[in-house]
Amino acid sequence: MTDSDTHHPIFDLSADIARTLGHAHRLVLLNHIAEGEKAVERLTDLTGLGVANTSQHLQHLKRAGLVQTRRDGKRVLYRLAAGPIEMVLAALRSLAEHNNAQLRELVEGGAANTAARLENISREELIRRMNEDSIVLLDVRPADEFATGRLPRAINIPVEELELRLAELPRDKLVVAYCRGVRCVLSADALAILRAHGWVARRFEQGFPDWLDAGLDVEDGHYNSG
């Protein structure tokens, strides 16, 4: 690398974006926005952050060109800006998962990995089982998120309603629960409920964002897309 390369403006621009992304709350907000356009109030509910805190992080993201806004009456709606932002988020998740897996292997050894394999299902195995029609896909996100996009043939039972609606799930198939991705605990909570009541269940830990990142088919209330 030449001296002129090290001072190329693209590195300064990259560093500015990296500094903006260098906050967990902003990454969480971006992942929620990537699932569909959302108002500040909805993002506040999803993240548990205060309105002022949420708005402050959103302004940082907007100044960095990572999100755009539009008005809908009195509401301000946020969406991802143009560009490969979802690819960047996916790459960060992949790197974090890789590093976390290595650390877990060092600290806990092979037992933790064995337990994770029994609990989690990979995207590849999930696709195979979907093609075999040997599973029931359970989306445990809130109904409004389910309506904006979901895995094919998934059914929606929000996790807080699951214990009251277990009778809607068959017992003769593996139930695979999923939610918003690796930082989301809803599918883990669902797995605990299902297993406590005798269901054979696993979870697709990467969830809906990973499915989108892979360019696989999704459904919404109007159409299927690939």
TrEMBL record:
Annotated HTH arsR-type domain residues: 6-100
Family matches, as SUPFAM superfamilies:
Rhodanese/Cell cycle control phosphatase (SSF52821), Winged helix' DNA-binding domain (SSF46785)
Gene3D superfamilies found in the cross-reference section = Rhodanese-like domain, Winged helix-like DNA-binding domain superfamily/Winged helix DNA-binding domain
Rhodanese domain spans which residues? 131-220
CDD domains for this protein: HTH_ARSR (cd00090), RHOD (cd00158)
> Sorted alphabetically, which Pfam families does this protein's record hold?
HTH_5 (PF01022), Rhodanese (PF00581)
The entry's protein name is: Metalloregulator ArsR/SmtB family transcription factor
List the source organism: Mesorhizobium retamae
